[in-house]
Design a protein that fits this description.
The complex is a heterodimer. Chain A contains 14 helices and one strand. In chain A, 70% of the residues lie in helices and 2% in strands. Chain A has a single domain, classed as Formate dehydrogenase/DMSO reductase domain (Formate dehydrogenase/DMSO reductase fold), CATH 1.20.1630.10. By secondary structure, chain B is α+β, with helices and mostly antiparallel strands. Chain B has a single domain, classed as Alpha-Beta Plaits (2-Layer Sandwich), CATH 3.30.70. Chain B is built from six helices and ten strands. In chain B, strand 6 and strand 7 form a beta hairpin. Classes of the chains: A mainly alpha, B alpha+beta. Chains A and B meet through strand 1 and helix 3 of A and strand 2, helix 2, helix 3 and strand 6 of B. Strand 1 of chain A pairs antiparallel with strand 2 of chain B.
């Protein structure tokens, strides 16, 4: 028997570590989502035939939404800082051993890459915007007129998307002091979770913008208002089954990686087994099994399989569930990771 | 080169917390926080129990994960003695170093930067011992240079059984406990 008493009461550290609240999970979720949008947009841009004009949702709407979501994510990250007025210090140095330093520089590169991808087809997607800002047409023509540049933008989006998606997991996994995070699987897990949420978001957008009569009733008002504002072109709804199928693949890989993470911990040291138990049977088990595994992965996987088999209509439900599950995964891993500790084995 | 270390005799430490008070006074540590603290560990089965009282603080590790993860270079290893320090003007308060420390030795100062034990480097540079060492009423705490084989800490570590905290974390602490 070992009993330890520590006479220390530092805020955020004692009695249990709680340094990161909602801000970091929000940032990790939105960062992963944007990474997925970049990869899908990049792959679509690279794979698209020159005369093909059916890539609006992946190559224009996705990157545009990505720019907004990334800004929200960075705002959440900024809100988490305790010394906010010193945030510019991040960009005075590059620390190769610090994932946060890598991330801050990657985020700086992500903006122009996303913007270039969005601009390529922007005049075609939203003609009203192009009429008001004619330079968009010039930029779009400049990009589309150079097939090598289009390919370069696509590949840069893929590479930066993979870097951003993996980085959100590596950020946690390099902290060996928290046994739950101490696994290289976390990087690929967050990458594929980001891809699944991105595919779900794009699929959800397509469901919302289906022709009148097929889309959910509540979307009518929103869409008619948006259409009046932007005179936007109809989206490429033929991509919906491809996105749903891709999402199913990403969800399956995510489930396998989640299993690998837990098996890795369960076959490791005592502190790692205790860390895995936090999710499997401990205080975070109910939320983990219900919101991450059940509602976040298994239910949407089933629904999308039925949609692809034409047994049910494409609905918004799988997209909402996958997005909720992706957020829950970050919340639970950040919270449970802080609760896992080396000293717990010695206590 | 020098490599500063602290050696604490757990057979002499009575957990009086004089070291804690001295540190708070010397370093103006804000109310509700502490850079060093007392830990008590009891192990064994009744009636064969053994108690160890330790004065704990930042271990000024030779391989500090808090320094590796710092994105701005605020957390760094001081050229003198390998002491791990934080440059408060460079710290953005991202809390990565707090999460990376297996000893939970850091905290966020109310002014927003990461704070921790400095081995009282400002005193050491003047030839004085750290505040906690200088006030210990049982003389259980010793400070010195590990690279000097004649230093008190080197001789104590050579002559007495000792351990560090969480050696399995691989950080190579520079605070040793004599048993």
């Amino acid at each position: 028997m070992i009993e330890s008493t520590i006479h220390r009461h530092n805020a955020g550290i004692d009695p249990a570590m709680h340094l990161w609240g909602w801000e970091i999970p929000t940032y990790l979720f939105l960062g992963g989502l944007v990474a997925g949008l970049m990869i899908i947009a990049g792959v679509r841009l690279v794979a698209m035939r020159p005369r093909e004009r059916q890539a609006l949702v992946c190559c224009t709407i996705g990157p545009l939404v990505g720019l907004a979501l990334l800004s929200l994510g960075m705002l959440a990250l900024f809100l988490d800082l305790e010394h906010k007025s010193h945030v510019w210090r991040l960009y005075l140095t590059f620390r190769p051993t610090s994932p946060m330093s890598w991330g801050s520089w990657i985020l700086l590169l992500v903006y122009p890459a996303l913007a270039a991808n969005a601009i390529a087809h922007l005049p075609e997607a939203i003609p009203a915007l192009a009429k008001r800002i004619p330079v968009l047409v010039t930029w779009s023509d400049f990009i589309l007129g150079r097939s090598r540049l289009v390919l370069a933008i696509g590949f840069v989006n893929i590479v930066l998307g993979i870097s951003l998606g993996i980085y959100t997991g590596i950020l946690l996994s390099t902290m060996g002091a928290r046994p739950l995070w101490s696994s290289a699987v976390l990087g690929p897990l967050f990458l594929f979770s980001g891809l699944s949420t991105a595919a779900a978001l794009l699929h959800g957008i397509l469901v919302l913008t289906q022709p009148a009569g097929e889309r959910p009733g509540f979307a009518d008002f929103l869409l008619s208002a948006l259409a009046r504002l932007s005179e936007s072109r109809p989206l490429d709804h033929k991509v919906a089954p491809t996105l749903a199928a891709a999402d199913n693949s990403f969800l399956t890989i995510e489930l396998a990686l989640l299993g690998l993470l837990l098996v890795g911990h369960l076959t490791s040291t005592q502190v790692h087994r205790q860390a895995a138990a936090l999710l499997l049977t401990g205080p975070y088990a109910a939320v983990f099994w219900v919101f991450v595994v059940g509602l976040g992965i298994l239910v949407p996987l089933t629904l999308q399989t039925l949609e692809l088999g034409h047994r049910i209509r494409h609905t918004l439900a799988p997209a909402l569930l996958v997005l909720g599950g992706g957020f829950a995964l970050r919340v639970i891993l950040v919270a449970a990771g802080q609760a896992s500790h080396w000293a717990s084995a010695a206590n | 080169m020098s490599r500063y270390a602290m050696v604490i005799d757990t057979r002499r430490c009575v957990g009086c917390m004089d070291c804690v008070v001295a540190c708070k006074t010397e370093n103006d540590v804000p109310e509700g926080y502490c850079r060093d603290w007392i830990a008590e560990t009891v192990h064994g089965e009744f009636p064969t129990l053994q108690m160890e009282i330790r004065s704990e603080r930042c271990n000024h590790c030779a391989e500090p994960p808090c320094v590796d993860c710092c994105p701005t270079g605020a957390s760094h290893v001081h050229e003198r003695g390998g002491v791990v320090l934080v440059t408060r003007d460079k710290c953005i308060g991202c809390k990565a170093c707090l999460a990376a420390c297996p000893y939970d030795a850091r905290f966020i100062h109310p002014e927003g930067y990461a704070d921790k034990c400095t081995f009282c480097i400002h005193r050491v540079e003047q030839g004085l011992a750290p505040a906690c060492v200088s006030v210990c009423p049982t003389h259980c705490m010793h400070f010195g240079d590990l690279d000097d084989p004649q230093s008190e800490v080197s001789r104590l570590l050579a002559s007495r059984a000792n351990h560090t905290l969480l050696p399995e974390a691989g950080t190579r602490p520079h605070v040793f406990y004599l048993t």
